[in-house]
Amino acid sequence: MPEPTPMPEPTPIGLYVGLIGLASGAALLLVQGVRADRHLWHHLMAFLVPAVTALSYTAMVLGQGVSVLPSGRVYYWARWADAAFGATVLVLNTALVALPRPSSRRGALLAGLAAANVITMGSGLFAGFSVEPAARWTWYLVGSGAYAAVLWMLFVRVPKEARRQGVSHRRRQGFWQLAFLLVGVAVLYPLWWVATPLGLGWVGLSTAVFVFAVLDIVSKALYGIVLVRTVRKRSADERTARSPFPPGSP
Predict the structure, then answer these.
(1) Rounded distance, CA 17 to CA 14, Å?
(2) How far is residue 163's CA from residue 46's CA, in Å, rounded to a whole number?
(3) CA–CA separation, 189 vs 206, rounded Å?
(4) What is the domain-level CATH number for residue 194?
(5) Which of 91, 136, 144, 242 has CA 20 to 30 A from 128's CA?
(6) CB pairs under 8 A, 24+ apart, for 72-81?
(7) How many domains are contained in the chain?
(8) 3-state secondary structure 117-185
(9) Going by C-beta distance under 8 Å and a sequence separation of 6 or more, which residues neighbour residue 84?
(10) Are residues 149 and 89 in contact, defined by beta-carbon separation less than 8 angstroms?
(11) SS3 call for 8
């Protein structure tokens, strides 16, 4: 029986950076959620994303969720498997800012967003397992196409449905700010993927893991904090606008 291929030593420092950053963000979001009396679903979803991603980093630090492929390349696949959950919840949480009212149209739109996002992350997972460059780039193109569908639904269909529902301008403005922030960070993932050993191999494994960890902290922890604060602020602005009394009046 052949001996198992050893995992890389030492563990890339980026895994520890990601674990600490994501766990800290999850803890902060948990405290904010416990104290909140409104928008509990937004708080819960924002907390779950960095919390679950921190678990995937824990697994990778322990040597799980990582494989050495026949080519000898080390592949930390747990982060891609986790992204199918985390990135999908991020997109849904953002869409719900613009679509607070339940409807069959909203349900179908959210389901489409979730499906396209899972296909995007699943393609990234299979691209990493692919040994042949042709297979890797095929999965890259599939994932890019699926993410184009995510962008179309997020920037075209969601705003259209929000206007149809009569959602306030303040709330829609908050959605646009969050959507551009989310996508602005998200597009850095495929761009960096090209430079890593999964793509053209311009950087080494440790550098690739470190930058991916920083992107995860920004997109999954810091973004969640910005989202819940934006939702609270827009909601407070709406209540103030509806109030017959000016702010600060007795």
Answers:
(1) 5
(2) 25
(3) 16
(4) 1.20.1070.10
(5) 91
(6) 72/5, 73/197, 74/7, 74/8, 74/197, 74/205, 75/128, 75/129, 75/198, 76/15, 76/209, 77/125, 77/128, 77/129, 79/53, 79/212, 79/216, 80/121, 80/124, 80/125, 80/128, 81/56, 81/125
(7) 1
(8) HHHHHHHHHHHHHCCCHHHHHHHHHHHHHHHHHHHHHHHHHHHHHHHHHCCCHHHHHHHHHHHHHHHHH
(9) 117, 118, 121, 122, 125
(10) no
(11) coil
Answer yes or no: are the C-beta atoms of 53 and 47 closer than 8 Å.
no
User: Rg for the chain (alpha carbons), in Å?
Assistant: 20
**Band of the pLDDT at 3, cuts 50, 70, 90?**
very low
Tell me the C-alpha to C-alpha distance, in Å, between residue 95 and each of 68, 199, 215: 38, 31, 21
Residue pair 61/47 in contact (Cβ under 8 Å)? The answer is no
Contact 143, 120 (CB under 8 A): yes
d(CA 144, CA 134): 15
> Model confidence over 179-197: pLDDT tens digits?
999 999 999 998 998 898 8
36 assigned to some structural domain: yes
Give the C-alpha separation, 5 to 245, whole Å: 70
Residue 242 lies in a domain: no
**In a 10 Å sphere around its CB, with 0-12 CB exposed, 13-18 middle and 19+ buried, how is residue 3 labelled?**
exposed
pLDDT in tens, 141-184: 999 999 999 999 999 999 999 999 998 888 899 999 999 999 99
Range of the domain at 204: 13-234
